[in-house]
Amino acid sequence: MPKPLYLHPDRLFPADPQTRAFARALYDQVKDLSIVSPHGHTDPAWFADNAPFGNATELLLIPDHYVFRMLYSQGVPLEAIGVGNPAVDPRAAWRLLAEHYHLFRGTPSRIWLDWVFAEAFGIDVRLDAETSDLYYDTITEKLGNDAFRPRALFERFGIEVIATTENPIDELKHHAAIRASGWGGKVVTAYRPDPVVDPEFEGFADNLDRFGELTGEDCRSWSGYLAAHRKRRAFFAQHGATSTDHGHPTASTANLTGDEAAALFQKVVAGRFTAVEAELFRAQMLTEMAAMSLDDGLVMQIHPGAFRNHNAGVFARFGRDKGADLPMRTDYVHALKPLLDRFGNEARLSVILFTLDESTYARELAPLAGHYPCLKLGPAWWFHDSPEGMRRFRRMTTETAGFYNTVGFNDDTRAFLSIPARHDVARRIDCGFLAELVMERRLEDWEAAELAVDLSYKLAKQAYRL
Amino acid sequence: MPKPLYLHPDRLFPADPQTRAFARALYDQVKDLSIVSPHGHTDPAWFADNAPFGNATELLLIPDHYVFRMLYSQGVPLEAIGVGNPAVDPRAAWRLLAEHYHLFRGTPSRIWLDWVFAEAFGIDVRLDAETSDLYYDTITEKLGNDAFRPRALFERFGIEVIATTENPIDELKHHAAIRASGWGGKVVTAYRPDPVVDPEFEGFADNLDRFGELTGEDCRSWSGYLAAHRKRRAFFAQHGATSTDHGHPTASTANLTGDEAAALFQKVVAGRFTAVEAELFRAQMLTEMAAMSLDDGLVMQIHPGAFRNHNAGVFARFGRDKGADLPMRTDYVHALKPLLDRFGNEARLSVILFTLDESTYARELAPLAGHYPCLKLGPAWWFHDSPEGMRRFRRMTTETAGFYNTVGFNDDTRAFLSIPARHDVARRIDCGFLAELVMERRLEDWEAAELAVDLSYKLAKQAYRL
Amino acid sequence: MPKPLYLHPDRLFPADPQTRAFARALYDQVKDLSIVSPHGHTDPAWFADNAPFGNATELLLIPDHYVFRMLYSQGVPLEAIGVGNPAVDPRAAWRLLAEHYHLFRGTPSRIWLDWVFAEAFGIDVRLDAETSDLYYDTITEKLGNDAFRPRALFERFGIEVIATTENPIDELKHHAAIRASGWGGKVVTAYRPDPVVDPEFEGFADNLDRFGELTGEDCRSWSGYLAAHRKRRAFFAQHGATSTDHGHPTASTANLTGDEAAALFQKVVAGRFTAVEAELFRAQMLTEMAAMSLDDGLVMQIHPGAFRNHNAGVFARFGRDKGADLPMRTDYVHALKPLLDRFGNEARLSVILFTLDESTYARELAPLAGHYPCLKLGPAWWFHDSPEGMRRFRRMTTETAGFYNTVGFNDDTRAFLSIPARHDVARRIDCGFLAELVMERRLEDWEAAELAVDLSYKLAKQAYRL
């Protein structure tokens, strides 16, 4: 007989009964607040076209690198679950997930997926080999209903605003289409210039060419290249962007003179640069982006510290974003100094820092954000976007940075259906943390109630200027 | 209507009722023990002159870099709160603190300040914009009473002994005056030679000159310079010092031959040295200080790992110690080896290690202190002197170093009025930790009772030889 | 009157009553499962000869570097407790332990020893100065009984299989003798080639000579040296080995061409190599060992990150393994890439990673093991083999690696009598962790029950192919 699937209303709250009661009371005040999703990777085409999603496997398995990396780690071939393999039988691929679903015990993927199964699709039995077909059929059938089209889900999920992420040579046609459609959902873009900023990005030279075409600037000259960024940032802002995003290997910044920067850019354009020069160019560009943010008001996000495409074999066969990115030890205190020397005291500038290296929370990030007016801390990110990860974030940053140098939650996901689940986890964990502070009399109950709303909703809107 | 300010008697204890009851019982045994404050930065002039403190802003806001760094991080200009600005209206500056007091939710500054407000000044409403003037007036008026003069507070706080920190070219006049006054309060100094040991310290050359004048030694020769240290350490010991303190950027030590050290010193004296040589000189001087400690019995404290004056703009306008010091990743296992190769097995030597890099607690510091006879661990320091920080310290050091390779609590503060609050936090957190061990049957209750006294009082006296 | 010694049945369980009840129920299902000890350092001679152990001091104090390092850190000379001093009076040495037993409060050594005292020897009073002789006499007397001979204890402890660790020039005579004896206890070896792989190991050149003699291969040629490894691995496998073990200073791997490796080997053999070349050779050998594991199926363990023999004085007087090994910061993401580039996607290969640097749990190890099919995570190791250490391991690895990329517990000890205590601690802590997940509804109760058995028993058997 299938095991029942039931989402307990007290899930993720602290065990102590009185603390749990505090947490529940706080959560009850915020659980129905609208979702502000200021950073993520959903596809704007979904909302532009409003076409139905495909089957369970296409929607929930193939695009989710959290899920297929775990299966792969236990010997399930990527092809077998459909990654890079359009010929896969989606029902058979789904069965592989079902048969291996015990691997996700204790992981956030399990929490998110169970929410999607139970809340989004109304399934009331657990996923395993026995229920695999039931799941596949139920999900795939529902996806054919209008109630499961992207815009309907957007509204059902209570999303007030969602940001996608595009690069400068994206024409933002989907965003334009969404606006032109008259649909009321607020979908904005964000400016992620890595493909034209990172000399080591695949296709960098071609990207520069396209960047020049789109902007009418000479992107082989330093001044033209900077002008192109300014134009394109303005174009993105017209499509709702309030932020930029930078996914560099490190947090290094630089503060070169104009001549030095121009000379470095010439090497980069010529394709004759060392790894050190590539890093220096990325570093200088963070500072240039900060300078532009001071002018145009775009909030700057820095997401450093991932060793991308670590698995050479997987990269060769399947390409980017296949669950083979790995965190690296990351320095901020030295790395950010050049940028901070120039703009650190500008209260109008807003730079949101993320990390994959939790050892920096208490040692570097909270002390930096607790001093510099331009710095704030993004939420626990990627591998750390999980109950334990979020708790460590609060425990290690709050005492030095406070709550108001953090920016609420963002889901950073391309798994659209999991967005409510992710915000729900964050709200539950934050309410649990606040309840613990109340229980230890480090906060008054009325302060915790205010903070619960701030962390769930207000801070994200303020920090991202949405 | 103002919100009530009330310090709950069970604050900071674990939530579980039985564990909380154990914690309360332990705490009741230690809460009234005298305060031993073996390391800190109070001003000996307070106790020498016993003049009244000024107004609320002068006493509690302007000198407290924990407080004004948080305000600054949220855009409040330092000038507006009186930092480097004698012309500030203190009442208006206080209002800025009051209006932004919610920023401190979840921080130790909030705990310390609320204790000062409630316990030291008897205020029973919370600080906010509405109560700002009430606070300012109440505090400022009370500071005019004899009961709020430094010596009266010293006695009221139950301080058995307090150590200040002076550099070798300080004449220790205030300490002499305290002794000469016949007042019974025990105020001792500590020898912090950074200004004559760190070639990169502001005014290093002038400091050396003054060092020579005070000691009658030729401080431009290596042997004279060492002799000057020996004389000055003896002078400090006469003024009660039982310890030295070293605030280097890293924990690096060196073990040069006499000739090598003398040659390096000549470069340093001549002002012709590289950054690497400056670091090597500081490293060698830690080993020289250890050698002198073996002779004169002064306990050695090493406080490494701060990137001082990180904010170039703030340093240029406001100078040192303006909340812009940041922790750095710190190595101990390699850094201390030269010193340990020479003196590591000397049980008579006592070196107390501190860190701003919590990743070293379990990885390096506890294993070092759990082996070398000369090493002990100082308490959670600076950014980590907080409830969560103290818990992490105990959880990550106890299993390898035990309790008896730690040295109790020290407050390390210049905020005199917060000293009882800081010791109270440490006692509560330690009692909570001990209660958890009892609850998990890792300790017997009578052992926890002994340890509570050890951690609150005895270990600090023993470790600092007070 | 002596204090009672009593092991509480709920020890090490979470404090919250309902969570504790869950933990107890889980633990009751696993507490009597057989012990699988897939990695450790017991002496096979014990089981071959089955001679009685000596006195309390010889058995429990002198060989236990956890214990004597703590005594040494507090000024007790190593000679006085019998380390490197056969002339010590064992009763007097034992008294030093008894008098200093309070130093172990809060440490895992205390937990293990108390279990040995209470459960193995039936003592019901606490160890202190007053009970020192009682302890010494009771233990020493019981060790003379047949019931305390190695094989009897092996059976009484419910050990299903235990692995020892030998180097390639060990003749495995004891293992052969155990098999020849007809005794049913399963004692297997493991292949630890450090003495013939690490050019900086004491006696490396002599070891190579002996390696050649034993295998009949020319161990001064690269191909002969590799052939010798293959032969010797097969010989170890015949003596039950299912694993190899590698204790390198770092986790560095290399992927040299055959010619490069051969040239490097010639430098190593000639004794003319730099520290960098020694490191490169060790790195290359990890990759060579992985290649051989693909052929012969031996599971590969990597135990990196110890700075061995850090205390120069202790090493000079007392030699290796005297409590003076210290953890170092350790990188995995870069270090393992060469090996992973070659074999990372081989699901038949199994490499078990350990660490002394907990900052890598969430940042590097869990993300690596949660992606690469060949990688799994060993349990919390050495300084971290403790209640808090095990909790941190689970809290920081589970959300990204899951449970099934970990390998259960191994005790890694030479302290034979403590083996049941160590497994018991692991079972209690894991059951407590699972109970917390159930309490937060991150797991169903039936899943936790399955996992308790997996973590206590099944995963170790599977991962080590036992």
From TrEMBL, chains A, B, C:
Native source species: Sphingomonas tabacisoli
A Pfam family hit: UxaC
InterPro entries hit by this protein: Metal_Hydrolase, Uronate_isomerase
UniProt keyword list: Isomerase
Membership in a protein family: Belongs to the metallo-dependent hydrolases superfamily. Uronate isomerase family.
Name used for this protein in its record: Uronate isomerase
PANTHER family assigned: URONATE ISOMERASE
EC number of the protein: 5.3.1.12
Pathway the protein takes part in: Carbohydrate metabolism; pentose and glucuronate interconversion
MF-aspect GO terms: glucuronate isomerase activity
Name of the encoding gene: uxaC
Taxonomic superkingdom: Bacteria
Keyword Isomerase on entry: yes
Reactions performed catalytically: D-glucuronate = D-fructuronate; aldehydo-D-galacturonate = keto-D-tagaturonate
